[in-house]
Write the structure tokens for this entry.
Amino acid sequence: MSVSVKLKKGFDLRMKGIAEKKMVEVTDPVLFAVKPTDFPGLTPKMEVKPGEKVQAGTTLFVDKLNPEIRFTSPVSGTVVAVNRGERRKLLEVVVEKSGDDFINFGKQDLSALSAGKIKELLLASGLWPAVRQRPYHIIASPGSVPKSIFVSGFDSAPLAPDYNFIAENSDASLFQTGITVLKKLTEGKVNLIFNGKSETPERLKKIAGAEISWFSGPHPAGNVGVQIHHLDPLNKGEVVWIVNFQDVTTIGRLFDEGIYKNERIVALTGSEMIAPHYCKMRAGAAIDSLLKEKVKAGHQRYISGNVLTGTNIGEHGFLGFYDAQITVIPEGDYYEFFGWAMPGFDKPSFYRTFFSALLPKKNYLLNTNLHGGERAFVLTGKYEKVVPMDIYPMQLLKAILAQELEMMENLGIYEIAEEDFALCEYICPSKIEIQAIVRQGIDLMIKEMS
């Protein structure tokens, strides 16, 4: 039965640089990378060396603790670099594209496939990491059985891509195959969530095997964690799986065409983009060639994802495995004298301390300046206004810092991920890195439960 949920808590951060709804052809990048840092909790073990030839679908590295979970090359070519950081931490495996060869995993007859066979194919192809789970917001355990699966069909984050536009420019039959595959992996529902503020395309309303619901309200209405909380909340010992909207199509392609082709439509956004638009690329693509002559001059920050939860990848970085958005904004490397005393017509404010509160529909040119430094972590009562979940954010954060495991459980650690607390970090008067605290708590729970 379809459900419509309207949320009141949250905050829409309105920014300049939303992508125009047009597809622009781009030249395929030469370099692609798979980054272990995209996968929280992963301990990678290399399976290739620099100089080796690979095909799209060749295993680059595996999870050392769960070696059946593979991470495969998005393109065919040559492994040109294995980049490491401090203490030899594996940061990225870089492949130089040459040709367009795919490992053939074989076209499948879904009616004859069991859940076990489907998992085997997803694991062998490297598509299993597209399936994540709550609790912990990590790659799902192949041995777990989800009580339901969630696919969020819209994103409410700043400058987020329009999934209706993406759907109009994607293969509906592959998406339907992907939903059919997911339905075989759970005895519960496959929940497909759309934006209640816009008209859902008819092709998506006709998808078989999924239960459609609509969410409306300010960000984070599009966060899958919020949607799970309102439709199928988690209790201790339960597991819900999550698959990104475009990854459903990639899964469908694997079963219909027999190849691993992790291609997606990406929104190039931000105030420093000369003409924000959409283009099609594969996960892990290098962004420098894509953005050449498309970015304004100046000192910019290049983000894979959105400004609240994305990753700073630099101008020579690579698109993240789960991302469908690249954001370019100015670096806030300056000091503002008496900024708090200015009228603030050009500054959005959740606390309504600037005159910008009189302009609710205005889009702002924002940068990375924090306008202050970290200070005492004080109780304000404001976090609850941007977290549309029945939890106590401040008390949960304090429990994490105190490492009180039982209290963390009681306060909802199983239901949340970093992205659900991103607005808390944005409005935090103490300038605390709240998302890092949330991941610290999740990692502690994983360690204690293992």
User: Anything to note?
Assistant: The chain has a mean pLDDT of 94. DSSP finds ten helices and 19 strands in the chain. The longest strand covers residues 77-84. The two ends are 37 Å apart (CA to CA).
